[in-house]
Amino acid sequence: MRVLIVSDSHGQGELLRTVVDRVDADHVIHCGDFCTEASHLPTGSLTVVRGNCDWEEVREEAYWDGGPHRFYVTHGHRHQVRSTLLPIQYRAQENGADIACYGHTHYPLCEQADGVLLINPGSLVDPRGFPHPSYAILEMEGEEAVTVAFYTPDGTLIPERGGAYTLHLRS
Known about the structure:
- It is built from two helices and eleven strands; from the N terminus they run βαββββαββββββ.
- The chain has helices spanning 13-23, 86-94; strands at 2-6, 27-30, 46-48, 61-66, 69-74, 99-101, 109-113, 116-120, 135-141, 145-151, 163-166.
- Keywords: Metal-binding.
- Its EC number is 3.1.4.-.
């Protein structure tokens, strides 16, 4: 299964649709700050949450069961993501999620902490502290193995981010 993870597209609906069409994922996760009308978001299998710049009434957080993995999705502004990832990690663990996706910092990150894979795809249009706008693709390889790769909006791989991870399935 292939999952596209994006965040902080800040009104660039056309670019978002271009990336979604190019990647052709089985599911799309948008971690908030889409900054358009919800009706302008891509259609299909989509999980979206509201960011601090969004006005549309969508969920503040969401859970999505993708194959053997449970994803926790939030924007992150209510979880102190600029200083620590523990609140997101704990929230994911409390609800049986082994993958947590968030945005807000505009900085791409992928790390594993106490059984939870934490993924921030960066910003699709306005990176901060990183030289490229970015998004992430998570590929499930079997039941426990996943690979995460980061790309620029034109589809160029960002080789210094991502990697292969083994996740222990929730019980």
